User: What shape does this take?
Amino acid sequence: MLILTIACASVPAAVTASLAREATVRSAPLIDDLSSISNGWLMKLRKKSPKRKGGTQQDLPIATGTKPQPPPIKSQREARVASIRVSPKDDITLESGKSILILALPLDRDGAAVQGLACGLMSSDREVLTISKTGEATGGKPGQATITATAGQITQTKVITVVEATSGKFGPTKPKSTRHKSGGNYDSSNRSSIISSARSASERHHARNSFTSPLQDIEIDPLPDDETISLYNPVNIIGSPPGKKKPGALTPPVSTGGTETGNQNFSFALPVVGMSGRGVGVSLSLVYNSQLWNKSVDPSNSSTWLTYDVDSGWPAPGFRLSFGQIEDQGDSFTLTDPDGTRHALTWTSTDNYDSTDGTFIHYNGGGTSSGTLYYPDGTVVTYGASGGYWRLYPTKITDRNGNYITIAYNGTSGAGPQILQIDDTLNRHICFYYDASNGDLVTITMPGLTGHDPLQVMRFYYEDVTIPSSGLFDSSVNVSGAPSTLHTLKYVYLPTSSDGSSPIYTGYKFDYSSYGMIYQTTHLRGMTVSSDSTSSAGSVTSEGTSSAAQTTYNYPTTSGSLTDVPAYTTRTDEWAGRTSGGSAPYYTFANSTGTDEKISTVTAPDGTITETHAIDHSGFWDDGLISDTYVQYTSTPIILAHTHLDWQQDSSNLNPRVYQIRTTDVPASLTKATVLSYTDYNNVSLVSERDFTTDGTVSSTELRKTETTYITDQRVSRSCRAVRRRSWRALFMLTTHTAHRTWI
Assistant: This one.
């Protein structure tokens, strides 16, 4: 070993550095010699080491791996930009004081989005039009202004014409529509009267006839406004309305997952994109609800109507691929969540509407052009993209900290529901591609890994289904909205479902009944398609060698002169590799009516019965709320557990809320209870857990309580909508109790 010491206390720095370099050079040969000697010793030791049983000791391989590319810097991203796409893609006419979302997407030479890069936006005349960095353009004085989008050295322009406002702050209002007294479609003059004067008749004609769209005519409201109340009727429930969602089978369907509500509607959600972001992420699923027939009563003559696809599903009837929508009902609004859940937004004051189902959602709007939705957690959703018609769609979703995502649409003047692109907080772009010949959604792409192309995450394939012109329903029932030919979603293909080593791609197949509803879903394995084009779907060339799983609901598949909406009684699950033998297992579903209640029963293959009781109080606030659930075994039956819910209205007599929950272990005759107290904002302030009783009552002995205090100060409010943040929580253990059980 060589030890080299340099005394440099009084030596100049330059001399010290020179001596150090010389010492390093001279010591290098000696270090090499020492290294050779050390390696020689190691080789001798290896030769003397005993052999391992079963072979000689081998040197471990060194895993080289693949070094990921560093993320490109802004200038590198800008250098990739070859063009810019500005949406809305057609000419824009905007009324003074109104706003519209302008999104610019940087594209490379292959037409793919340049990820992580946002375009700069500028108005040529700020007196005519102002535009924010997030793309919100607001009309000023009448005239024309040019929006310039810039990314690197590439620019793109869009001319916007601003005209005098002819309607209120939120656009024109919608007259309340009704059916003709003689039946059939309701007065068409009502439909045309609300179209914005800024759009000419020829523009409206172009919006309807520019291509053969798989959607219903966006100018037609499938359900008259005086029958809107039927959307919230328990018999028409879809999604998960608070307090009214009946539990489905204990085990989800094997093919798609999901659940059921009673015996009329099953639903599932196929994940499309899930990207966490800064504050607010992007989560989008393809959701299906099978209850496509809405039952309503015409108040003018008490006639019964069954209306098909009242929500105008997209990309096909029954499906939703969106962040929700708001529909103008003439004197109120309906908010529909991404999973199909409907919330009535009722008038509380000028331009202000509130939900009455315990969700405390507030809407500031009043017309068919724009509005803003406020959630209790501070989330704010900006609505627009109506194209001057009945429905508005989210264009911006902002969390309480100001993080946001933006959504642009593909329709005329940027109208929904067909999404064109989604931009998140990190300037990542999710793109939707359409077949220009028919308007079908072809595929969706999301950002790939660093340095890689965007990924196609889902492709869509369609099929036309013939709907019989007669015989579906009894003559005593009026039918509306069902076309003679239905454009359905037949297949969904997942291009990223294989690991690449042995390409076995998966997807889903949907089979439809004569009533235009899916009755069978199949999870396919080994699926192949003819093309990966983004402009046309091509075809499914093979469904694969076998199905991974299949779920069948026994909806009526042919015309049956029904007197009510189609319903099923069984769900059968079959899957590859099932080892139980015999016929495939199935669940059974049944509905019945008791005294002031409706009962839904689900029986599992092993005999377990789940029975749900809902309050039957038509026209009142508690109609449809779940009151009791029972878990039973065998048809005798033997009740194992019982849960009872007690409901009340809030202090404003608007929102229902649970104030007491009793859970009973029936074989042991022991009941425990939880009692809830609320603040003025309907937040739970006190949870009181009570002792056991043997007679089913609520004990006065409190075992434990949890108290929560919330901040409602204006300092943490947004636009005067208080954000209820929890400030502190206290837990009190009051007594102890031991329940003795003997198990045999």
